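Chapter summary example.
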Amino acid sequence: MESPKPNNSGPQVRRDAHRLDGLVKALCDAGGHEQRLQTLCEIACEALGAVGLAILARQQGNVSIVMASPAVEPQAEPPAWLLALGKCYGQMLAETGQTVSLGPETGGAWGVFVPLLAAEGTSITVAAYVLGGRPVRLQGVADVLQLVRSALYLAELAGQQGSAQRTVEAEGDGHNYLLDVVEVLGEVQACTRFFEAASTLCAQVARKFNCRRAALGRVRNGQIKAVALDQMESFARGTRGVRQMEEAMQEAQDQDRMVLYSAEEGEQPDPQTITRAARELATTSGARRVLSLPLRAQQGQGFVLLLVMDGASFEPQRLDALMLICRLAAPRLSDLELAEEFPLKKAWQYCLTCSADIFGPRRTGLKLATALVGLFLVLSLLISGPVVVVAPLTVEGVHSYTHTASTDSYLHEVLVRPGDEVKKGDVLGRLDTAEVGLEIAALEAQRDIHKNQAGQYLQEGKDAEAAIARLEGERAELNLNWARQRLHMMELRSSVDGFVVSEDMLPRLGQPVRRGQELFEVTDTASLRVVAHVNEEDVSDISRSMSKGEVKGEFTLTAYPDLHMPFTVERIHPFATVAGTENGFEVRGRIDASSALTLRPGMEGHARITAGEASLLSLWTRKAVNKLRLIMWRWL
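The structure predicted for these 636 residues follows.
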């Protein structure tokens, strides 16, 4: 069965005031029972904004449709919403009325049932099909259906008074009380201020129902204060008459029920009702009846209407009309009063309402959720966790050693490439040694020649020439040693353990090099460190933690995502730098020696620096709080 879908278009949802006025007039002018019943169903459906409203009868388990709005043709198949209400009503056991979910197949619709009549196996109920399951809305629907039940009675009496034959035992005086209800509520609805509405209500009720005096009292903290009297714009609350009226209204407020005192025999509806204050007011004023009616708004009992009356016997339909007026006027008075309250008082009332929802007997799910949230917040305040700063990281070397050409020559051999790991003393490359070799051979020959000449001169007795030849031979020996040293320098050897970080020299093999030209660069493995670029929002946490002691951290690299290597923060660079779009500071750290062998200069990764401890709530909210503080400082 396809359920009706909600339509949020303006004309479909908004209540048409002119249409309601026309329906009320049609109800008052209706000539037959069926016409009055159909019109009243249309009024209720229009006022509630319901999908449909029906009057259902059940006899011996069989459900029949008495009336429906929108109307259904006799031979046509009932719509889906009407079938859902009939099925649900057929399965209900209680006759006192209730709100029932019509199931998920209806799109979350609810059925609200209010009994009209129950006698010897037969029951008649008015039911509304409502989309949306908010408790406040459903309770309001049930309240309006209760008023529909009262209006049915008044409409029936209004129709019977215009008919030649009457079907009730007590005949009325020909007065149309339903029309009085509509006129009084129309006057109250037109008012835009609370005192104006209260005075209008008292004046209209006193005029329509022939009351000697009508007064309205407002309930505050369980106490009654008179706010309006008919035909009086102002009055002194300290006078005896006003005090007696407030006491009579307080009597109804304390008993939370209607209080009627009548000097006529048999008019008292409930002999157990306390009427002491009402009796004193009637005796003092010389009236025959005093009636106190509570006006219940959505927030509870907020007003009490007091009527001092004379005249003939009090008719039941007259009392029903008054009760209907009180029930429908109360929300309007409450709304006007709330609209005129001080804004701080409105906020306080809202807080009280929310606290009542939380701590009251209802809404168990909300209270459980609130308790869980409270417990979560308390635990987050008591449990501490580490302040972890995450930042991008780069591995770099502190000490690098450059190997240059010792003389002008040619690059003869390249034994390493960039990134190669070398040990101290490993040959990186060689220069061309041909020129130095020739020089060494020439010097060796010169040395031998001078050595032979010195021996020959000594044999000939030429001591001076022998001494000169010996000196020339020693000079040749010195030049030979220097040439051999230069020959040894033609081999470029690593001076430390590390990695080659210079450019690739293999393409330059055989090309000339100049003396002092940089050929190979080796970074010392023992001098590797990590440099993390920490956002300026987090660097203060690291700085405070460093003032208290040593700050530790760990990092992982893109090349080794499965390895977590420890390091110790050594210093924070004093000048800010920009990395990408973030402004931050370089935090430099010393790497643990056990992990340095797997690293290469230039590797990138991420660091996690532990900068003290704080509560979990502070950890989750500290960045947002810091931004809020900055915004408040800038604009406040």
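To summarize the output: DSSP finds 16 helices and 24 strands in the chain.
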